Amino acid sequence: MGDSPENTDGLPWETDVEDDAPSAAELEAAGQDSMFGDTPEPQAAPAPEPAPTPAPASVEPSAAAIQTQESAEPAQPYRVLARKYRPQTFAELIGQDAMVRTLANAIARDRLAHAFLMTGVRGVGKTSTARLIAKALNCIGPDGEGGPTISPCGVCEPCTAIAEGRHIDVIEMDAASHTGVDDVREIIEAVRYAAVSARYKIYIIDEVHMLSRNAFNALLKTLEEPPAHVKFLFATTEVDKLPVTVLSRTQRFDLRRIPVELLEAHFAEICRKEGVEAEDEALHIAANAAEGSVRDGLSILDQAIAHADMDTGGKVTADRVRDMLGLADRGAQRRLFAHILDGDAKAALAAVDDQYALGVEPLALMRSLMDLTHRIALTQVSGSEAEATTAEERDQLTEWSKRLEVGQVHRLWQLLLKGHEEVRHAPDPLVSARMALLRVLHAAGMPDPGKLAKQLEELAARGPAPAASAGEGGAGAPTAALDWEELIEKVSAAGKLQAESIMRLQIRPISVEMGKLVYTRDAKYGDAIEPVLKDALYAVTETRWQLETGDPALATPSLEEQRQAKAEAAKAAMKEHPMVKAVEAAFPDAEMIEDRADVPPMQREVPWNRRA
Question: Which residues contact 234 (CB under 8 A, 6 or more apart)?
């Protein structure tokens, strides 16, 4: 091999290695051969040597035959991006800086634990990290004199053998298919023997939570006090299923989800190395859909590259990626969200139908609206401009964050979240999405319940407004009656029924102020009412009241007297009606009776009832 090119872009997988270092393809092929066995090319059985025949004169191989012999090597099969760019050094492991720093310090200080546990969601590098730790602990350097290092050379025999999956002292076991106690017993028997050629004998157990309870119990003693030459590396996606006794015997590393921005940069660099042109928005969509998983994101990117149109030179566009994933266009998302906020039900349903006709799933549509709501809330909290891929989207989100109140945004989120769950389990997701969005639309403009409750508390604290006297003008009496009636309703709601009856039937208010009531009442009432009224008024206002009697000429009638007066006025007006007069003329013995609430509706429609 010739001299390796100089690393100009800082990609960790382009580090300079010696001329005899194997390529990533060779390492991958060797690892496959070690796991599944090398498949030799079929060879024909040796035939008996034929009798020598004289070769014809001037027989030479043709140029085509020479070219065929030179190109006899089989072409390498295509490897997906997730395998092709699997990290081979800690420098290539993106998004896990805290773990790498901890391991580097532990190696530098010779404080290596005997068991490590890598946990996290799928595709963040748990198994890759375990293999890298195995290489870091067993690396001997290009000269064969090196020790454990956070930057393994990748060219020494241990590094090469571990990368190829054929190192005799690095045993990798899949706990999903080896769950029993017999599998663990083999490990317990083997740890007693020293490593054959490496510095440490390392056991990598993937998906360790799949081990049975008995298998875990059998492993506990060995895991707590293993020989000095043994290291255990566990990887799992469900750390909660591991027994506490196992967790307490391991050094745990929680591998984080990879941020969207870091995934975008990683995908852009891979596209550059692959010679693929991709739009920034397309990479952003793929990174968002990956949900923090590098492997998922690379699988989506691989599919997007294959999905790209050939007539555009294989360029990965946002529209094609969105179409591939069944996502809604961002502009259509914002238009639908605007229709919901404006209360335009017809336009909102039309927008939903348009997106569904384009292949957008109702569940993806609900998720897109939830994402908009979430970003509006983040903008309100940060107080700065919203983060978006385009200036138009950024301006729209910023405008909504200023227009909507915090309570409205949170209510929108709760309604959309409930609608998302309904759409997920509905027999007809489209119908469910329509009904859920209609519910959100009608509730979006409702006032904030917290603000309403606060206004009611302030109104109750202020108490009833002072009543205007009758001498100050005719407009004062209705206002006093309303204020007085409101106070009576509060007394009734507090359960003070005796005080309510007294206030409604007997009291003729003159002035009503907070803490002071000036009133009069008919002379026929002579009982003591002040203790009952003071107790009831204190219960509803938490204020000590002073009750005084005043000039009867300034008092307004009691509520009962007002009701009777209105009834008499209505009765007198009814008698003046031409139809009533005609009925009285035709039926002299007829008598007009009061329309009562307990009378059936068919009878209450006729304001009289003939008596025989």
Answer: 115, 116, 117, 118, 130, 205, 208, 250
What rounded mean pLDDT belongs to the chain?
Answer: 78
Question: Nearest-CA neighbor of 141 among 301, 233, 17?
Answer: 17
Backbone angles phi, psi at 98, to 5 degrees: -65, -45
Residues near 447 by beta carbon (within 8 Å), at least 6 away in sequence: none
CB atoms within 10 A of CB 172: 19
Nearest to 525 by CA among 533, 535, 513: 533
Total count of residues recorded for the chain: 612
Tell me the three state secondary structure of residue 185.
Answer: helix
**Looking at 333-373, which runs of residues are DSSP E strands?**
none
Q: Which residue has the higher pLDDT, 134 or 483?
A: 134
Stronger pLDDT, 15 or 113, i.e. the higher one: 113
**CA pair distance 510, 557, nearest whole angstrom:** 9
Give the model confidence (pLDDT) of 537-593 as tens digits: 888 888 888 888 888 888 888 888 888 888 888 878 877 777 777 777 777 777 766
Q: Which residue has the higher pLDDT, 525 or 162?
A: 162
* CA trace torsion 105, 111, 112, 117 (10° rounding): -70
The larger pLDDT score, comparing residue 481 to residue 260, is at: 260
What are the φ and ψ backbone dihedral angles of 57, each rounded to 5 degrees?
-70, 145
- pTM value? 0.53
Q: Residue 534 — very low, low, confident or very high, per pLDDT cuts 50/70/90?
A: confident
Stretch 100-116: mean pLDDT, rounded? 90
**Residues 140 and 195 sit within 8 Å (Cβ to Cβ):** no
Best-predicted range by mean pLDDT among 47-51, 378-382, 393-397? 378-382
Indicate the SS3 state at residue 355. helix
Burial per residue of 178-217, b for 16 or more beta-carbon CB atoms within 10 angstroms, e otherwise: bbebebbeebeeebeeebeebbbbbbbbbbbbbbeeebbe
Q: Which long-range contacts (CB under 8 A, 24 or more apart) does 215-221 make?
A: 215/179, 215/180, 215/181, 215/183, 215/184, 216/242, 216/243, 216/245, 216/246, 218/181, 218/184, 218/185, 218/188, 219/184, 219/187, 219/188, 219/246, 220/245, 220/246, 220/249
What's the CA gap between 550 and 431, in Å, rounded?
Answer: 68
Task: Please give the Cα distance from 422 to 254 (Å, whole number).
Answer: 33
Sign, CA torsion 499/501/507/511: positive
